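chain below, 149 aa
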Amino acid sequence: MITQKMKYALKALIVLADEKAGNGRALRIEEIAKRSGTPKRFLEQILLEIRNAGIVSSIRGRSGGYILDKDPTTVQLSELLRLIDGPMAPLPCLSQRHYARCEDCTDEETCRIRRVFAEVFWSYLVLIESLSLADLVRSPGAAAQVFAA
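prediction:
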């Protein structure tokens, strides 16, 4: 399950992607919050994390604000999930980037719990790693389903 913070991040990025496709101007945080329905106080922290990852940039000055730096097709949803919500694996022993051996496990090779969750997790990874921000931007119906839960 994705967190509310992740939903806010996706909503803000959809707004910035739409703006980039339109007139390409930077948007102030108040405008992003208004268009995305995201509380400004949460959005500030989220945009800072996304900016530090190089996905958006901030521009100072009178016509400043935030702008999407990357093409939406290159912003993978899996990378956003990892950035905002952390590791995606249901068990620490399945995480590629944050691997940790389960404390109560005696043998990963024969662990039945690991084997079943690995199958589910790898199927999920194949799907989520194939999706980008562009998939949410192109498909308003699909984006609405993401946020409906």
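The chain is about 55% helix and 5% strand. Helices lie at 4-21, 29-36, 40-52, 77-85, 112-128, 133-138, 140-148.
thats it, cya
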